[in-house]
Automatic annotation (TrEMBL):
Monomer. Pfam families: HAGH_C, Lactamase_B. Zn(2+) 2 binds at D59, H60, D136, H174. This is Hydroxyacylglutathione hydrolase. It comes from Paraburkholderia rhizosphaerae. Belongs to the metallo-beta-lactamase superfamily. Glyoxalase II family. Keywords: Hydrolase, Metal-binding, Zinc. It is an enzyme of class 3 (hydrolase). The keyword ATP-binding does not apply. Its cofactor is Zn(2+). The lineage of its organism: Bacteria, Pseudomonadati, Pseudomonadota, Betaproteobacteria, Burkholderiales. Zn(2+) 1 binds at H55, H57, H113, D136. Thiolesterase that catalyzes the hydrolysis of S-D-lactoyl-glutathione to form glutathione and D-lactic acid.
Length: 263
């Protein structure tokens, strides 16, 4: 079987629209705008064969109508959200089986950023590597804001992503890594893997190279939102915020709120 290519196409300020291609056909994940997708497809000579959506925000669905004008393709998205043009409405436990490119995806419910947010997990590509497309739920060194969900929902969603195989490549929808790392270091200044990642990520951005994909194993080691149970993080939160941290849920909720106002 031919290898698949996973390409982050930049859009807007800091979005990535992921394309997965077998060299002829491509699937687009969260095309918030059509123009960069059209341009990239044209450059590579790829044909769009399907669209996958994780949640209803404009910067993830805004390009769907225009892409459908070019060619009618099936559109997969969350059953729990009001999104136009959906061909298939998906929820936890559903499977997406595509022929071109050949892709088998399992649907995970990951509410928190939005109430119906889903992620797509590919257990194995032709080389044996797992992949997940997680929209605005899990970011490199961070997580999405809680626009529609509770901290408990988001923590459960992040737990389900963190439980995926460590080698899983994580395809997030935004390049937020450098600012996320600054916050992560405030939460866990002594994390040496995080310090090394700060230097590596800064070097990549200086060359205008994406910091993604990341992996689940790496996120478990450096992402403070997956590490809310760490005693050192809980101690830092109690100290910095003058709050009582009783468990990982309270630590997670305090951390998420702190991040909202962190500069
Ligand atoms: Zn969003
Ligand atoms: Fe977004």
């Amino acid at each position: 079987m031919n290898a698949l290519e996973y390409v982050p196409v930049p859009a807007f300020e800091d979005n990535y629209i992921w394309l997965v291609s077998d060299g002829r056909n491509a699937v687009a994940v969260d095309p918030g705008e059509a123009a960069p997708v059209r341009a990239y497809l044209a450059k590579r000579g790829w044909r769009l064969s399907a669209i996958l959506l994780t949640h209803h925000h404009r910067d993830h669905v805004g390009g769907v109508a225009d892409l459908l004008k070019d060619q009618p393709v099936p559109v997969y998205g969350p059953a729990g959200e009001a999104i136009e043009h959906l061909t298939y409405r998906l929820a936890h436990g559903d499977h997406v089986s595509l022929a071109e490119p050949a892709l088998e995806l399992a649907v995970l419910d990951v509410p928190g950023h939005t109430s119906g947010h889903i992620a797509y997990f590919q257990a194995s590509d032709p080389r044996g590597t797992p992949h997940v497309f997680c929209g605005d739920t899990l970011f490199a060194c961070g997580c999405g804001r809680l626009f529609e969900g509770t901290p408990a929902q988001m923590l459960a969603s992040l737990d389900s992503l963190a439980a995926l195989p460590g080698a899983t490549e994580v395809h997030c929808a935004h390049e937020y890594t450098l600012s996320n790392i600054r916050f992560a270091l405030a939460c866990e200044p002594g994390n040496t893997e995080l310090q090394a990642w700060r230097d590596e990520a800064a070097a990549r951005r200086a060359r205008n190279v994406p910091t993604l994909p990341t992996t689940i194993a790496h996120e478990r080691a450096v992402n403070p939102f997956l590490r809310a149970g760490e005693p050192s993080i809980q101690a830092t939160l109690a100290d910095q915020l003058h709050e009582t941290v009783t468990d990982r849920l309270s630590a997670f909720a305090l951390m998420r709120e702190w991040k909202n106002r962190f500069r």
